[in-house]
């Protein structure tokens, strides 16, 4: 691999991959909403977990969350694309740890209770991924489209807003007893603080500290290593 040229011929596959992620994350976002807050009677303020529930909606949610975990595992293809295209600098600490923790969260949740308060943050995360993968898809369509992608920095701001909301929303069960496990709260709060810190560091380095202006768009693989 060291002496080989970058595999830039995989670009059509990457475009298809990004398009599929837009569709899949949209599907999960809409379906999660229909089974919880829109049609499932969930509380936006504080939602516990009924570990004894075996009704149709609960089992359907578990099945849906299992498939969602598989999609998040497939996100490791981002790293594969970086390596094949020899964009090694994009395989950053934030990129690797983020993907690992997402998969860990999925496995932990399915094993010890994926439902409850965290679902709203998961739905918002699906929405964020729809926006992100839409950007990645458009950024690979050439200069004609790229010149209109002036909103790159707002993707990171959206991520920071997501982590802030996740932290505040996850604090609610600390003060309201709605049957949501404390250990789940501690795990999510720690991760929200960690990611907010890491993404803030990236944002300052990329947009606040740079001395010279750059283009309003970037290669999708470059952004994925930092924003996803």
TrEMBL record:
One Pfam family recorded for the sequence: ELO
Catalytic activity of the protein: a very-long-chain acyl-CoA + malonyl-CoA + H(+) = a very-long-chain 3-oxoacyl-CoA + CO2 + CoA
GO cellular component, as recorded: endoplasmic reticulum membrane
Primary enzyme class: transferase
Chief localization: membrane
Membrane spanning stretches: 12-33, 65-84, 91-112, 118-138, 158-177, 183-203
EC number of the protein: 2.3.1.199
GO molecular function: fatty acid elongase activity
Keyword Nucleus: no
Bilayer topology term: Multi-pass membrane protein
Similarity annotation: Belongs to the ELO family.
Protein name: Elongation of very long chain fatty acids protein
